Amino acid sequence: MEFAQRLLATKGGTIAVSGLAAVLAAVVFVVYLQRYRTSLKSSSEPATVLVAKNFIEKGTPGNIVGSDDLFQISSTPKSELKEGAISDPDSLRGRVAAEDIYPGEQLTVTDFTTTSPDAFVNKITGDQRAISVPLDSAHGMIGDIHPGDHVDVYGAFNVRRLNPDGTADPETAERPVLKLIVEDVPVLAAPTEQKTGFGASAGDKANVTLRVSDEQAGQIAFSSENGKLWIVLRPKAGAEPSAPDVVTLETILFGVKPVTAIRSLGAKP
Prior knowledge:
The strands form three sheets. Strands 5, 6, 7, 8, 9 and 10 form a six-stranded antiparallel β-sheet that branches. This protein has a two-stranded antiparallel sheet with strand order 1-2. It has helices at 2-8, 11-44, 62-67, 137-140, 214-226, 249-253, 258-264, and strands at residues 46-52, 71-77, 95-97, 112-114, 128-136, 150-159, 175-189, 205-213, 228-233, 246-248. The protein folds into two domains: 46-120, Antifreeze-like/N-acetylneuraminic acid synthase C-terminal domain (Type Iii Antifreeze Protein Isoform Hplc 12, Alpha-Beta Complex), CATH 3.90.1210; 127-264, no CATH class. The protein starts with a helix and ends in a 5-residue tail after the last helix. By secondary structure, the chain is of the alpha+beta class.
């Protein structure tokens, strides 16, 4: 402290201190400038980010976002990245869109929320639908079918002969008809075992969930409501097409061809 006071007490000392301060200021400025330039360079460097390619509706599963090509990989300066921007498509798995995402928007972690990987919404896309059908143990093979199996769905009805205009003729007797409704349907969920023990009955029903198209969902729902459904298990590999697709009393007892049975009901094959 005493040395500094004596140094500043002379003109030469004051000049020397001023010069030293100027040099230190210059050094600090150069260091700051270098860091600033480095920061600018870093912020302008390109970074990978996922950008919505098409409209992503709220509730869309992350794996569907990837499989349906709803995003594209883009490059943008780091300074323009949103907080939590997603760069890896795998990070979308097990998540669903928390809000609507519009084309051109960066995908961020806050845009998605977690969901169970077993949720049905993660297993359907496009025109696919998940439909649960109530079936008893015999008709639904409860305890014998499992998620991942493939089945054929048959519907049994009592029908009357058709008039030329396609309406049922009330003057004719009802005839039992069984028809293949949907072939090769994946099972999404099924009870692990049928209900047994006290209180159980042959008529007890359990839900079997199937993955079908939107059109097939309507056909199965109508058949379940107005007829009797059967589920038939298909082999894991090498399953051949199911035939015939229509069964009547005549086709079983007398070997009448299905096409002939269909025509006898006034319908066109």
